[in-house]
Prior knowledge:
The chain has a single domain (16-108), classed as 2-Layer Sandwich (Alpha-Beta Plaits). Strands 2-3-1-4 form a four-stranded antiparallel sheet, covered by helices on one side. The protein contains two helices and four strands, in the order E-H-E-E-H-E. It is an alpha+beta fold. Helix 1 (29-39) packs across helix 2 (82-93). Helix content is 18%, strand content 28%.
Amino acid sequence: MTERVSALGRYGIPREEARLITGVLYRGAGLKALRALKARGINAAAIYHARGSSVGDPVQKSGLPLQYEKTILKVVVPPEQCDEILELVVRAADIDRPTGGFFYVARLSRAMPHHLPDLPEEGTPRA
Length: 127
């Protein structure tokens, strides 16, 4: 027996294409970009931290490159809004300087909706 899949697909995941914007940024820039996205009404984004080195980084006595903490930003957007949102996060992250970081865009065949709850403003006591 063949199971029929609805227009939303199995598990309610929309079958529309999406774009994944990923940024590898200096420490702290991801939060600036996340705030710019939130101000634009986009709250389906994530940031996390990683360590790594790139070509040309200073080298330790052991010959291994120094590893710096980076911030990774990921946001899934509809294809028709990709260029606009990419420009927004590039400006917010201030990457137009040496070691500022970089962004890239990947095509996704489908994505599951992800929404963050509203957070209190900084300095506001939590309930």
